[in-house]
Predict the 3D structure of the following.
Amino acid sequence: MEPQNFANHTRWHPPFHFFILPVMIINFFWSVVVFIKVPDWNSGWWIVVSLALLLLTFFVRTNALKVQDRIIRLEERLRYQQLLSPALTAQTAALTPPQICALRFAGDDELAELLNQVVAGQFRRPKDIKLAIKNWRADTFRV
């Protein structure tokens, strides 16, 4: 397996991204086409069911990502307590959840420096934080 870095850290789950999601989107649009061709209660109801399935698909994915982000925040807070001084650990309270999630890729040796820069306002976007990381710490357990 190739070492993880900024260029390849995005996680694609093929069954979801390349099968389930496209099928649900196509199903919704197909139900609209059928309703336009044959406007009756049955085809109208199929639009409602197709929309519900599409929304369910998005909620399944986003809820898993929210849980993952909560766990990452907890793991990183524990990591901060182990690696950082108490004063610097106290400053981590100002971090946003996306900043915490981005900093998880920073190696232990550069975490304090990057954290100081984030708290100082040098990096606002998670992408900027990730691009500044020199010693990438892989996260291969993501959903």
The chain has a mean pLDDT of 94.
